[in-house]
Design brief:
Blueprint: E1 2-3, E2 9-12, E3 17-23, E4 27-33, E5 38-44, H1 62-75, E6 84-89, H2 101-115, E7 119-125, E8 131-136, E9 141-146, E10 152-156
Parallel strand pairs: 1-3, 6-7
Antiparallel strand pairs: 2-5, 3-8, 4-5, 4-6, 8-9, 9-10
């Protein structure tokens, strides 16, 4: 099991479980190519992109994280046009009546994935409770827990045969 912390991006084609805990206003993107069985998690903290120059410079930012995730996945054999994603997080855990960060982050991530032609197949976003996510790459299954609750299946990809 690999823990993916805030601002990190992991991609793999191995029998590994990627996990992110303590997801509050952040958004975690779990992307998968069922043909190549390549999966990735990106734990995004902020909308937009880093003001620094350079590819994938600061993956705390949504655009940099998603670009970095796509780069890593295609290097492992994923087809850029066949990726699908689940998104988890974007909660207003501080219950701030003026909260815009979590809403803006969720909307930015959704828009950026759509721009790149990545279909969102499941989501667990919003609310006021933090979440955890586990992505079993071999199974092609994403599990989500809310608060201290048990993890439940959010989405599974049927493997391609043939």
């Amino acid at each position: 099991m690999i823990s993916v912390a805030t601002g990190e991006v992991w991609a793999t084609a191995k029998r590994i479980v990627l996990r992110s805990d303590g997801i509050g206003s952040c958004v975690v993107v779990a992307a998968y190519d069922k043909g190549s069985r390549v999966g990735a998690l990106a734990h995004v903290m902020l909308p937009g992109k880093s003001s620094k120059s350079g590819f994938g410079y600061n993956t705390k930012y949504a655009r940099d994280a998603i670009d970095g995730m796509l780069f890593k996945m295609t290097r492992l054999g994923a087809g850029a046009g066949s990726l699908e994603a689940c998104i988890v997080g974007g909660a207003n855990v501080l219950q701030d009546s003026d909260d815009t960060l979590s809403v803006n982050l969720v909307n930015f991530v959704i828009g950026n994935l759509q721009e790149k032609g990545i279909r969102i197949v499941a989501r667990a976003v919003g609310g006021t409770t933090g979440r955890s996510v586990m992505f079993d790459i071999e199974e092609g299954a994403v599990y989500c827990a809310q608060g201290e609750g048990s993890a439940t299946l959010l989405h599974t990809w049927e493997p391609c045969h043939g």
